[in-house]
Amino acid sequence: MNGRVVRGALLVAGTTSxxxxxxxxxxxxxxxxxxxxxxAPFKAQNMSNxxxxxxxxxxxxxxQALQAAACGLAPSVRFNPVLLKPGSDRTSQVVxxxxxDGTVSAASYRERKAALHEVVVETLVELRRDHDVVICEGAxxxxxxxxxxxxxxxxxxxxxxxxxxxxxxxxxxGGVLAHLFGTLxxxxxxxxxxxxxxxVNKFRGDPALLAPGLDQLRALTSRPTLGVLPWxxxxxxxxxxxxxxxxxxxVGRPAPPRGREWxxxxxxxxxxxxxxxxxxxxxxxxxxxxxxVTDPSRLADADVVVLPGSKATVADLAWLRAQGLADAVLAHxxxxxxxxxxxxxxxxxxxxxxxxxxxxxxxxxVEGLGLLDVEVTFDVAKHLGTPTGxxxxxxxxxxEIHHGRELRDGVGRPGPAPLVTLADGAxxxxxxxxxxxxxxxxxxxxxxxxxxxxxxxAAAAGRDFTPAPDTSYAAVRGAQxxxxxxxxxxxxxxxxLEQLITDGAPAGLPAIxxxxxxxxxxx
Length: 523
Fold this sequence. Notes:
Layout: E1 8-14, H1 21-33, E2 39-42, E3 45-47, E4 51-53, E5 59-61, H2 62-70, E6 82-86, E7 91-96, E8 99-105, H3 106-130, E9 133-137, H4 155-161, E10 165-170, H5 176-185, H6 189-192, E11 195-203, H7 207-221, E12 225-230, E13 249-251, E14 263-268, E15 273-274, H8 280-283, E16 288-293, E17 304-307, E18 309-310, H9 313-322, H10 325-334, E19 339-342, H11 344-348, E20 352-355, E21 364-367, E22 375-385, E23 388-391, E24 394-397, E25 400-407, E26 420-422, E27 427-428, E28 430-432, E29 435-438, H12 447-461, H13 473-491, H14 494-503, E30 511-515, E31 518-522
Parallel strand pairs: 1-9, 1-10, 2-9, 3-6, 10-11, 11-12, 14-16, 14-17, 17-19, 19-29, 20-22
Antiparallel strand pairs: 4-5, 6-7, 7-8, 13-16, 15-18, 20-21, 22-25, 23-24, 23-26, 26-27, 28-29, 30-31
Helix pairs in contact: 1-2, 1-13, 5-7
Family: Belongs to the CobB/CobQ family. CobQ subfamily.
GO molecular function, one term: ABC-type vitamin B12 transporter activity
Keywords: Cobalamin biosynthesis, Glutamine amidotransferase
């Protein structure tokens, strides 16, 4: 860093959701961390059902956990003080500093914003006190002016903490220049004064063709483009809430198999899927082809079927039946082919699901798929933990986030064989041979366990498949983070980034306004 001490903060905003904010923050964090800077990530408010449990006991968005890894830090609730976990189209569970704090609708959440704004600002102050640099990620887009009055994650945070802002746009979607210009144009002048530059994401093609547009954008806004990040097909890990999880699609880009055949994994894309990134570790294995599916026909030729987590298990189980997927899962299991249920997916595989307190919907009991000899009861209190133990004879570490409690002896006979034996000797999950279930998230990230599981699954499926003996999921993730750091270092104006972090937004950046269709800068 040219001998200069780097201290300060920066907010990365986006023209839209999924514009690239999360990966850009991770890349900037990795770039700084590799240069010895004490850097931490921060997202004031996240809306995601992909979360992890921190060592300090609470849960945060998985994207912030990945960004923490980019910084060389363990996840902390301070990196994501407000997490919204949607349970339906209209309501979300609110997690504040890692702890559940009620359920809100879109309207009622607005009423809580003032108190949460204080939590957010105080948490950012703590982080800036304890770390030299904090790289903040916005939420959605700052151009959502209908939400500006109660905003705590974009310009509301930038104004409160005097943060310089860069805005990233996804050129792969088209219209990126209009998106960048329009984002600035709809902001009030005091907000505009903090927007200091642009980043174009996912560019592929001839840079010379884009350059005139960037020149015009600077002329119209008086703000430079700090870099153009190229499309990188090698990036795929931890794509939180990405469009790749919305419809059928392949996860990752695995290397060819070590044996003669691929092992094909079908992951059911539930409407309210939670922690779907659990299967990323399978995609890191050579010869394992992982695909998200929503059609029963896609299970017909799968070797392994995975039912992932769900934020609304009962509703997603009803959807599974309505789509014909439940019958396809049952046929797959009865043919002796492997089925793995994780968290909500595990609960669906049980005999019955009891919700006496109406945790998910109206109180009552529903029949599960009956493939595992357990019953599940939802408690009001959410269970969070980071336990260790053994599974398939291998040491494992993982995390748990669930309301459901498994009832292993509810029918007056010995409970089923556990999949995991915890360090205290307690049983967790079920190993019923071809069908397995567990509440453990991150279990597949344990390398030796994953290889043992894949070996067993390949044998049951009759596949000539041998897991690679040396695949390290941690190393794969580290390589992805290094790739992000490389992209930032090679394609962004890092000197300008450093100056923004240290000195803030330049004074005198003009506001822009539109008059009869013509844009102009105004002082």
